[in-house]
Specification:
126 residues; alpha/beta; five-stranded parallel sheet
Length: 126
């Protein structure tokens, strides 16, 4: 799942994930993310920290309360050590700063696929 209200970011993720044979679940707001998370059961979540209706860190906590093993990767255009530390301490799997790196996203996807937390979950592809 990718949660971001920026259509360019969403398109970039769609293009990358399609090449990786991953299914994409899109959400443009925190409320939409929570609803889809409950019904779609995503393997991983890339979550923007600045959403039109919510703070991404609040959504991170709500997602992990529903499913503590799903990897949630925070994405942000506001890079700060403080924010990174807070996100990771709240349970984020990783933290990405914009502009996003395709190489870095691929590395994270590989780590997720190999993570003991996610080995029992369904695969990315179908």
């Amino acid at each position: 799942m990718v949660v971001d209200d920026n259509t360019k970011i969403m398109f970039a993720f769609y293009t990358l994930l399609e090449k990786e044979n991953c299914l994409l679940i899109e959400a443009a707001s925190g409320a939409e993310a929570l609803k889809k998370f409950s019904t779609k059961n995503p393997t991983a979540v890339f979550l923007d920290i600045s959403l039109p209706d919510a703070n991404g860190l609040d959504i991170l906590q709500k997602l992990l309360a529903k499913n503590p093993v799903v990897p949630v990767i925070i994405i942000t255009g506001i890079g700060s050590t403080e924010l990174r530390t807070r996100a990771l301490s709240l349970g984020a799997f990783d933290y990405l700063e914009k502009p996003l790196s395709v190489t870095r996203i691929r590395e994270i996807l590989e780590r997720i696929k190999k993570s003991p937390k996610t080995l029992s979950k369904k695969p990315f592809t179908q």
